Amino acid sequence: MTILIEQPEFVAGVGVVEKKDFHVSEDDKELVLDGGFLAPHTNSFGQSFRDYDAEGDRQPGVEEFYRINHMNQTYNFVEKMRAQYGKLDKVEMSIWECCELLNNVVDESDPDLDEPQIEHLLQTAEAIRKDYPEERWLHLTGLIHDQGKVLLHPSFGQLPQWAVVGDTFPVGCAFDESIVHHKYFKENPDFSNPAYNTKYGVYEEGCGLDNVMMSWGHDDYMYLVAKENKTTLPSAALFIIRYHSFYALHKSEAYKHLMNEEDIENLKWLQIFNKYDLYSKSKVRIDVEKVKPYYLSLIEKYFPTSKLRW
Ligand SMILES: O[C@H]1[C@H](O)[C@@H](O)[C@H](O)[C@@H](O)[C@H]1O
Ligand SMILES: [Fe+2]
Ligand SMILES: [Fe+2]
């Protein structure tokens, strides 16, 4: 007997459809995988993924991270950061050089991972590659989605962790209760500002997420870098990069009233991507030198110049 496990797949022009991706053969009493990626039940610390209350060494630091993040991410702050970092006048480097810079970067907001970020980028991309071998754009999206974390590096002004990592959320309208450690928004000045604390705030129904200011961090920054450097990646890739930390949307379905038609389409891809972003976090290291030529070929395909403006 064969047990089929459902995996969604994208078919050009049709969108996301169900796909039978791998099976377990009971006759042979062994697992027969068609090279598929298996999402583990627990993280490398033995806890469920994204359990922000589970007791453990990382919990107090992660909670403190969110306290400071929620207090400081205001509409005004985001406007300033977008204007300053949108100039892309800090550094010139290639995508691969950026991967290498992330060799020393550890994300303090993450309860599931304490490995350097280069590992996470490759783990994500390689996990996607297993299940979606044909979607080369999605492999590259995996590789670059967290590169905005270079904002932590001294050559980018060494921004504090609260201004770079963690889940993101819209500013300029009410903070949804589904956001991790929501209680700390009480200390954010926008929380009691009537211009910003209603369901719509400064936005309108269906205005499109492109027109929504998101809390500042690696997502919005990398989106600007990719867009301004004229990537030919599809719009779903840019959507994934800008909103992959927006769990209130892609997990809790909050803020849907701000989406437009294109957002609704792109969200399907983000939900696929999220499985690999989250569940590939592990202690299993990728052989960087072995996979490097493949990713260099993708970078060449989707970016017009080898040096990017950051
Ligand atoms: O801690 C994690 C990490 O910073 C990820 O890169 C980000 O995308 C997540 O949303 C966040 O919660
Ligand atoms: Fe991220
Ligand atoms: Fe990530």
Automatic annotation (TrEMBL):
One of its GO terms (biological process) is L-ascorbic acid biosynthetic process. GO terms for molecular function: inositol oxygenase activity; iron ion binding. Binds 2 iron ions per subunit. The keyword Iron applies. Its EC number is 1.13.99.1. Keywords: Ascorbate biosynthesis, Cytoplasm, Iron, Metal-binding, Oxidoreductase. Fe cation binds at residues 120, 145-146, 218, 244, 277. Coiled coil: none annotated. Belongs to the myo-inositol oxygenase family. This is Inositol oxygenase. It comes from Erythroxylum novogranatense.
